[in-house]
Specification:
heterodimer; A: mainly alpha; elongated; B: alpha/beta; Rossmann fold; five-stranded parallel sheet; 5 strands; 42% helix; 16% strand
Chain lengths: 358, 158
């Protein structure tokens, strides 16, 4: 036991604080360098930071032990067994730091965290997904870099959707959160998805729709949310992604008038007429007089009509092909769009009526 | 004076154009939206509405009691059915089945002012809805942009 002098206590305390600050600071530094921000958020949310805490405690205890053995300020410092023990403690501290780094790289790498979230999401059974785990997947998708990181999340969401839809008890309304996660992964403002990510997203939605149809549930709520999500993604893609991405949304197997109309209108506004013609063509194939496609077809034709001579020529050709959609149908469509706040389209339809049926 | 309507639905903002558009363009309705069980209950106890439309799959919001109920149901909105339990709390506050007991019950609220708009098939929730004596229920379906307006009109007819 050293003599308890004021000098000894001051030296003891100073050295202890220095070593503790070093130990904790080193841990924080390693954590920040090795684990990206979004993974840290998710890991903390799941209280998986226990390993670093244990290791930090080990480092802290080692520091106290180290100081106790060396007794700074005491004349006996430098004895051979004390030096040996001091070195051993320092080695343990460094070893703990190395262990900590290994644990971090093993537990907090992206595939490992995503895999744990996948297992957590399904732990209570396929029909009862653990929503916070799905929300964390969405968070990682949203904040992950375009390309491989987003694809990892999309692949996991796709596996989850497959499992849910393969369950015999699937009722057609369990996938809302998964579809929302796909949408958030791709539409992130900070890290928007790449073309390849968007095409993967379209494939997931197409599969949800196809598998619902296979189970005779083509009008179920999951198909509705998948189509709404596809519409948002496709409209976004018109402005920011390649033609191939937008075309991937034309091949969902099931299309709804409002989706084709929304893509068409956005394409006309963005002057991407190849896409606009594709949307018009698909709407035209689906339209029969007086069905639900009528106002959307009339609206898109009118927007073509108002977008320059070439577009007007194409609208004129379509009007000749669609003789069954007459003036009254266009007038009804103008009312329809006005009642939904789409005044630009209702005005365009009225202008078309005035030009075409003077 | 417009008819005051409250819609308690977590996806309301996503469905703004699709379902809410027709309600605003109806011209006679003053629509308020809340997106969780906690917020819905707050609104029901602070204001009065002629019509309240509730989604069954509500998130809990920040009230501990709703969070606990959601967690007990496996952190899943479909399993928790907080919309039904919210209706139970305000319509049948003294019933022994009621899980969340309120300090203040909105006395103006009766079953005839409540309607449900949700994805659950009616057959799955009918016993619960019948016990609440609520007569308006509509399943959400694809391309039915007037669904919310239909529920509101049905409730107001009652």
């Amino acid at each position: 036991m050293p003599s308890l002098t004021e000098g000894w206590a001051a030296a003891y305390f100073g050295a202890l604080v220095t070593v503790l600050v070093f130990a904790v600071g080193l841990q924080g530094l390693v954590y920040q360098v090795l684990v990206p921000d979004d993974l840290r958020v998710v890991v903390h949310r799941h209280r998986e930071g226990f390993t670093p805490t244990y290791i930090a405690s080990t480092i802290g205890l080692s520091a106290i032990l180290f100081i106790w053995l060396l007794h700074p300020g005491d004349q006996s410092v430098g004895g051979s067994w004390q030096s040996f023990l001091g070195a051993a403690v320092i080695t343990i501290s460094l070893g703990a730091t190395v262990l900590y780094c290994m644990a971090l790289t093993r537990r907090c790498n992206r595939p490992a965290v995503v895999d744990r979230l996948f297992r957590e999401a399904t732990q209570a059974g396929i029909r009862q997904l653990h929503e916070p785990a799905v929300a964390d997947l969405a968070y990682l998708g949203q904040h992950g870099a375009a390309g491989a990181e987003k694809d990892l999340v999309l692949h996991t969401l796709s596996k989850l959707a497959d499992l849910v839809q393969a369950d015999p008890a699937y009722a057609g309304s369990e996938l809302e959160d998964i579809v929302a996660a796909v949408t958030e992964t791709l539409l992130s403002d900070e890290h928007p998805g790449s073309d390849a990510n968007f095409i993967s997203g379209a494939a997931i939605l197409a599969k949800v729709i196809r598998q619902s149809a296979d189970r005779r549930m083509k009008d179920c709520p999951d198909v509705a949310v998948a189509l709404r999500s596809a519409t948002r993604l496709a409209v976004h893609a018109v402005r920011r992604q390649s033609d191939a991405v937008v075309f991937s949304f034309f091949n969902l197997g099931e299309q709804r008038s409002i989706m084709l109309y929304s893509i068409g209108i956005e394409s006309v506004d963005a002057k991407r007429f190849r896409l606009a013609m594709a949307a018009l063509s698909k709407l035209e194939s689906a339209a029969k007089p007086a069905n639900s496609y009528e106002p959307y077809l009339a609206g898109l034709l009118a927007r073509f009509w108002a977008s320059g001579e070439s577009a007007r020529n194409e609208a004129g050709k379509a009007l000749r092909r669609l003789s069954a959609i007459d003036r009254d149908a266009f007038a009804r469509s103008a009312e329809y769009h006005q009642s939904r706040g789409d005044f630009e389209t209702s005005d365009a339809i009225r202008a078309l009526i005035a030009d075409h049926w003077p | 004076m417009k008819t005051r309507v409250l819609w308690i639905e977590d996806a309301a903002l996503l469905d703004l154009n699709y379902l809410v558009g027709p309600v605003f363009f109806d011209g006679t309705l003053d629509l308020s939206i809340t997106m969780s069980a906690t917020e819905g209950l707050r609104k029901l106890t602070s204001d009065e509405f002629e019509c309240v439309v509730i989604d069954i799959r509500l998130p809990p919001g920040d009230d501990r009691r709703w969070i606990d109920l959601y967690n007990e149901s496996g952190h899943n909105k479909a399993a928790a059915q907080l919309g039904l339990w919210l209706a139970q709390s305000v319509l049948r506050p003294r019933d022994e089945k009621t899980k969340i007991r309120l300090d203040e019950v909105p006395r103006w609220l009766s079953p005839s002012r409540v309607g449900f708009l949700s994805v659950e098939p009616l057959r799955e929730v009918k016993p619960f809805i019948d016990a609440l004596q609520v007569s308006t229920y509509k399943e959400k379906s694809i391309d039915d942009g007037d669904a919310l307006l239909d529920v509101i009109k049905s409730v107001l007819r009652h």
